[in-house]
Amino acid sequence: MEHQVTKCKPHYPCAQIFDKTNDGLMRYCARFNSSPIEEFSENLLKIKNNSLDDWYKQVQDAYDVLFQKDKEDLPANFLALAEGKYQFSIDTYENTKAKIVQQLKLISAVNQPMSSSQIEPRPKIVEQPEIYLQLPPCDTETFYGGYDEWPSFRDMFTAVYINHPLLSPAQKLYHLRYKTRGQAGDIVKRFALTNDNFQLAWDALHSPYENKRQLVDNQVTTLLNLPKVRKETSEEFINALNTSSRNPLLCIK
After folding, report:
1. Residue 203 near residue 175 (C-beta atoms within 8 A)
2. Is 201 exposed, middle or buried (0-12, 13-18, 19+ CB in 10 A)?
């Protein structure tokens, strides 16, 4: 009795390794870019930067091995598809890498200690004992986009950050990103962290919340949404007044 020979599907280990490492790099970049970069600490950014380089090195190695193979050893048209995936992964890697490097530079600039020439000497009162009062740190709350919160946020951010004599515009933009979330944060994040973009970002945030017509409409909406006074409550109040007026002990003479 003759045995029937079953043909197995060809196995392409180098192609599978390339797909696995390339997909791993893309997932890593997608997870990183899905979170606000301002929430990462300096140490965590350095770790993620090294991990990103490791993933990219694996993709490069798998790509080099892949193109050392003969075309007959690979699925049809696989090399053309692999070339397109590889070029896209390079672009994704470079964009993610640039974000991390830029953020690390900005954090380094923000945390850089002031030199002695930048620190103004504290004036002394002549013939008076020096009295130093240590105040608690002053900062602004996070702004989520509420019209009622805007005036307070605007004035506090101006006092703490914009008027700070030692902060560069890029540093101010960094703090503005960190202090805004939600609708307000979406406006600020449209601007890259550069000196030239701070004023543009501040104006873009300033514009909708300084719209007087919108502010009036918002106040009117707030008034219309106030809870209504129950009719029974008003009638009870009037009855109480009438009763007190008939009571001689409660009358005011």
Report:
1. no
2. buried
Distance CA 57, CA 49 (A): 12
C-beta separation of 173 from 167 below 8 A: no
Q: Delimit the domains of the chain by residue range.
A: 13-111, 150-224
pTM: 0.47
CB 162 within 8 A of CB 172: yes
Phi and psi torsions of 226, nearest 5°: -65, 145
pLDDT digits (tens, 9 = 90+) for 8-19: 344 577 778 888
* pLDDT per residue as tens digits for the range 18-65: 889 999 999 999 999 888 887 788 899 999 999 999 999 999 998 888
Residues 6+ apart with CB under 8 A from 232: none
Query: For residue 72, what are its two tokens?
Result: 């007959």
